[in-house]
Each structure stands twice: as C-alpha cells, then as structure tokens.
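Quick one:
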Amino acid sequence: MVAPAIALMGARAGLKASKQYSVSVLGYDFIGLAMRLFLFLGVGVLVQAYFTATIAGSGWLKTFAGFFNINLPPAISEDSPLYKLFTTGYQGVAFWQIMQIIAVLLIVVEYMQYDRMLKEKGEKPNVTTQGVFLMAGLGLSLMVFPQMIQKFKEIKILSQAPRTDVTKGFGGEIL
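Output:
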C-alpha cells in the first residue's frame, strides 16, 4: 500500500517539475495541453468503443435470440444517423474523424488564447513556443485532412457515377 502511494507522489512531483520546466523554457505549459488532448481523445475512444460494442453486441444477441425464435429490436436502428456515424460514417464522415478535427481546432484555439494573453500583458510570443504550436497543429492536420480530402473526393466520384438499375438483368429483362 505504501509503494503505490510513493510512486504516485513521485509521479506528481515529476509532472509538476516538467510543467514548470515547459513554462520556464517555452513560456507555455505544453505538458498540460498534451494531457488535455490525451483526455479528450481518450474519452473519444471510450465513446467509440461503447457504440461499436452496442452495435456489434446487438447483432450477435439478435442472432442468438433468433435460434429460439425470439425477435429482438436492434439497439440502434441501421437507418439512424447514429448507427452510420459509428460504422460507415454519416454522409462520409465517421465519429473518429470528427474527434481528430476537433483536436486540431483545440490546438488552434489554445494558441489563440496564448497569443491574446501575451498581447494583454504587452509581451511578445516566444518563437520556439509558436514553432511548437505550429508543429503540433500541422502534425495533427497532416494525419487528419488528407484522409478527409480523399473521403470527400470518393463521395464526389460516387455521386457523379451513373446509376444502374439493379432490378434488371444483363439483357434488360426484369428479375
């Protein structure tokens, strides 16, 4: 019981020291920003896992109940936007992509607040700090936006593709 308490105290002291070092060198607490982003994305992972498990669990439970001739309604209807958001993506955009975009926006907003605080104090921003913000924002953006652009291009191509009538056979006869 004493060992975990000592480890926790050591972790807290190390975290406090690294925050102070980050503020003293860069002028901003990037450790705190990383922790907030980690918490935000961690909650996003939990929400994604919950809905994925609910959708998948509903499917196998319905299959199992079908063996006993019991008809269960789905937990989430396959026609609902919520179902599409956590499976194929609602109108091409999945939940996790939304979380990634929000994470990029959080970094941008955090920088804007940092910049505004410095202007109110009459100070100039540290170039290294601006570089770290830029690197974090661009790093996340390069992971998120190319995927989104590709997805939108695919949706555009599919929407412009000629429709085929699936009710007719090769010779045009109705099936």
